[in-house]
Amino acid sequence: MVEKKEINLDSVLESLGPYGRYNLLNFVLLLFPVLLSSFYECGFIFEAQAQMYRCKVDGCELRVNDTSWIQYAIPTNLEKNNSESCERFAPLKPVEQCVPEEFSTNKTIPCEEFVYELEGSLVEEEWRRALVGTVHNSGMFVAMLFTGVLSDRYGRKAAVGLAATSSCVFGLIRAFAPNFTTYMVMHFLEAAFGGGLYPSAYLSSSLD
Hints:
The chain is mainly alpha-helical. It folds into 2 domains: 20-49 and 122-207, no CATH class; 53-116, no CATH class. The protein has helices at residues 9-16, 21-47, 70-73, 126-154, 156-175, 180-194, 197-207, and strands at 53-55, 76-77, 82-83, 87-91, 103-110, 114-116. The strands form 3 sheets. The protein has a two-stranded antiparallel ribbon with strand order 1-6. The chain has a two-stranded antiparallel sheet with strand order 2-3. 22% of the residues are buried. The chain crosses the membrane at residues 24-46, 158-177.
């Protein structure tokens, strides 16, 4: 009669054997591309941060380093303790000197043009910021399906190699994207082909 061995943590560790140099080297080699890939993931925090913006007021924008005119040209949002983003006081006449007498503080009009805190940003408009997250999550969904098929057919090492390379290439191109369309395409491709890096590396380190 075969004696049944009690299953506990000690017996499991005894069966697996010691954590040797091979396991440590494998862990370090997999940690390096995963660490680099995380920078692209965390970059979303800075790429899609909320932009401060206000109305552009013709006749006042030439007053460099002097923003005192904002108090009588643009109403204040008391909740945010900042200037309104989408409306300004109606001008009584064409603004030339940007003085209080040229504005009506009893009437507001919608903004026609805007001035942003960071000029030239690819995500100046609110819907563009939201779209960045949507496209990224869509790419990650594709990555889970694509990486699983690739791992089953060619192995986890191939999946890790392709994901690490894709994350590097598409991430660098995205960093220097000249326009919003290119930026979004690279964002999707980087997530779709590089998003499977972490789960592939995790499986490789835990099963090898």
